Amino acid sequence: MIRVITTARLTELEAGTRAALDSARQAGGAANEVFGEHVRELYAVTDRAERAEATVTEVGAILTQAMKELSSAQQELLLKDIEIRRLRRELERGPVEGESLTVLLHHGEPVAVYGSREDAHADTATHGKPADHVWRRCGERPAGEFEWRCEPFIYDARSNGFHRVSRPAPSTLGGAA
User: Fold this and answer.
1) What is the value of pTM for the model shown?
2) What pLDDT shows up at residue 79?
3) How far apart are CA 19 and CA 42, in angstroms?
4) Which pLDDT score, from 0 to 100, does residue 174 have?
5) pLDDT surpasses 90 at 173
């Protein structure tokens, strides 16, 4: 079959082809614009997601550290609560016959009272006395002759009080005993 195409028909087809190409170019340009906008949005969303992830990581590290500190503080509070309960029981119990205390004296003046001689010795280290200091017996010499002196006191239930362990020998007053 043979078909005859006229110039008018050929012009009409060329015009249709140009219109289709223009329409295709416009659609491609619009598609490129939309695609570019989507790519920009994708980059922006990715950037926000990465920043959010970094923030979550940072907050996680801060939370982990805070939890460690909280755990440490709770443990410290528990130990202090146990010590407070022990001290309350001891206080409610009151002194017991033969129980001793140690008074720390500095040049004969009382500085503090301790539950043990070791605690008193440790405290003198905070006042400049070496921790490895060798303590000697003081004998009958007055407490004022010593820079630091630890004097033990024992509870006597008959007198309802604490008394020195080593009492000085009674001195005679005007020849009387």
Assistant:
1) 0.43
2) 95
3) 34
4) 62
5) no
Query: HEC states along 94-157?
Result: CCCCCCEEEEEEECCEEEEEECCHHHHHHHHHHCCCCCCCCCCCCCCCCHHHCCEEEEEEEEEC
| Residue 160, C-beta contacts closer than 8 angstroms, at least 6 positions apart | none
How many Å apart are CA 117 and CA 30, to the nearest integer?
92
Q: How many residues does the chain have?
A: 177
Nearest to 151 by CA among 162, 160, 161: 162
129 has pLDDT over 80: no
Interior angle at CA 160, CA 146 and CA 177, nearest 5: 60
CA dist 148 → 117, 132, 153 (Å) = 13, 14, 16
The residues pairing with 152 across neighbouring beta strands, listed in sequence order, are 102
| Residues 6 or more apart in contact with residue 119 via CB below 8 angstroms | 102
* pLDDT attached to residue 119: 82
Count CB neighbours of 146 within 10 A.
16
